[in-house]
Amino acid sequence: MARIEGIDPKQAPFLMRQMFRKVRKMLGRDLTPQRIQARVPRLFWFGILGEWLLGQKAKVSARLRAVVTLRTAANHMHIRFVVVLFIIFAGISAVASAQTGEEPERPLQIGTQFSVLHVDPLHEDAVSVGVRASYDLPVRRLTVAPEIEANYFPQVNANFGEKQVLAGARAGFKLDAFGFFFKVRPGLVHFGGAEFTTRNGGSLSTFATDIGGVFEYYVSPRVALRLDWGDTMIYFPNPIATAISPSKAPGWYHNLQGSGGVSFRF
Q1: Domain 108-265 belongs to what topology?
Q2: What's the whole-model pTM score?
Q3: What is the DSSP string of 114-137?
Q4: What residue spans define the domains of the chain?
Q5: In 3D, which of 168, 158, 161, 169 has the Cα closest to residue 128?
Q6: Residue in 183, 144, 188, 182 with CA at minimum distance from that of residue 166
Q7: pLDDT the model gives residue 15
Q8: Could you please report the per-residue DSSP string of 16-69?
């Protein structure tokens, strides 16, 4: 039976190299099971995440836990058997991945999200549901993605009734199963709720610009989780009347907005 070889830590992606370096610092060498797991990045990172979560409740250091685990596996046959099965599973996954080849890049993303927008001059925290579409374009080592997003804020508490449409781009880089981006998206915001129209003489559609960051985690080649955070700047051309404070002066206002959702990749 051919022996399953792990990857060379020096040839691993940047984030994996940092994890190998940390283990090497604790134990003085690289662990073969970990090198084999690294052939399937998602298996590797789920293992790291599981160890970290268990470590939150442990009362001993990570190095001592690792040493005890290795020595116990060496002295108990049934534990060695479990370890062997785990390595075989990792090897089978790696071989299957090698046979099928790299998954093709799926640049089109269509998804949905929940968003929270703090409209500073209106003293309102509005919650929305929305949809989004984007298309990843490789530019050297970066990814640039034009995208469009629409959000609807129901009239629940403050009764301002926003609608939001943004169209722009995000640019950044991907590391293994993670993506880090900077976004700039101009657009429009519409205020049409009963309280806003009553106090301000009608509804208002005005300019907005969303600037911030994006984090993506690629659960599989077809599914991604996404978190957004940033400053949505909204322009009010006229004084703004609310029931809480005196009228606000016209101009641009900074408003914190964050969202989380899921995207499907095609």
Answers
A1: Porin (2.40.160)
A2: 0.62
A3: EEEEEEGGGTEEEEEEEEEEEE-E
A4: 9-100, 108-265
A5: 161
A6: 188
A7: 75
A8: HHHHHHHHHHHHSS--HHHHHHTTSHHHHHHHHHHHHHHHTT-SS-HHHHHHHH
